[in-house]
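User: I'm curious whether this sequence folds into something compact or stays loose and floppy. Could you predict its structure so I can see for myself?
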Amino acid sequence: MKATPISRLFPGPIPVRCFLPFRRAAGWSALWMLLAVLSLPGGAQEDPLNKVHVQPPPAATAPTGEPAGAEAPAATGAAANIARPGGMIRMNVDLVLVPVTVTDPMDRLVTGLEKNDFHIYEDNKEQAIKSFAMQDAPVSIGIIFDLSGSMTSKLIRARDSILEFIKTANPQDEFFVIGFNDRPELIEDFTNSVDEIQARLATVQAGHRTALLDAIYYGLAKMREARYQRKALLVVSDGGDNRSRYTEGELKAQVRESDTQIFSIGIFDAYAATPEEREGPMLLNEISEESGGRLFRVDDVSEMGDIAEKISTELRNEYVIGYTPINLRRDGKWRKVKVKLDPPAGLPPLTVHARTGYYAPLQ
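Assistant: Here's the prediction. I'll summarize afterward.
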């Protein structure tokens, strides 16, 4: 009988308070031993951790900077007082908002942390946190769907994972879908109708080559029409680009300047035949991390639906930290932002995911 992976036993957000009884009773070794036992055949039982979802009370928010280990970055924009928590740092004259995700050693989302657990730095100078919130605000989301020939055997699973992602999103979220092979094409414009997207995805077919960079570039440009200030792209691909007009450098520059998080589901072949396919995982990972998002690797295509649901949950459970920067010069320069986590004593090593910085406004 196949053992159940631990990540499948506890797929939902893990509030910090759920860790504390184990810390007081026997330390972290006891907790990991218990989880190891549960992962044995026959050991998986329904656990209340799967049903717990604790959010701190909403606080005042505003617009939102670079990580290392349990450190990370922020994001900017223009409409500060009306800005919603979002993928990038948003800034007006005196306020920056930094969306932050925290995960535990098994890559599970951690909720329930407090304002005092975080420290934020801009260009290595600590900033005073003015606002702190976690709330499920609507998001404008673009789906970037690989329809190249290498995706033929994965097409049905990939399509189903996209639909699972949409169905578990905030009902107010809006979506568009871009499919790509030799070139990107808009399959469905902004909508919040799952039925419309499902009908359009039912007609797609895989074939030809892979213009991945062009498709992501197109998705970032399409986000200029977004209704919400929170923006994200979900890229579903095996990662090997062999057709794009835009270069990797040009795309990374666009990602850095955008206010859009990029989450990727990478369906990589174990034995990639071409250099482009072998470089695909690194390419998707770098682009995702640059934006403050993440790459999720698919080892078994049957798990794609679970991964898509996990990304949807992550988008709905971001901390948003607001601060007034010490440096208010409008010089258009890159401001490096780092978020450091100082969690309650006894917790395991936690990882912070966030953007690396923002460009100061020019006026």
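Summary: The first strand starts at residue 14 and ends at 15. Confidence is low (pLDDT under 50) at residues 1-10, 22-87.
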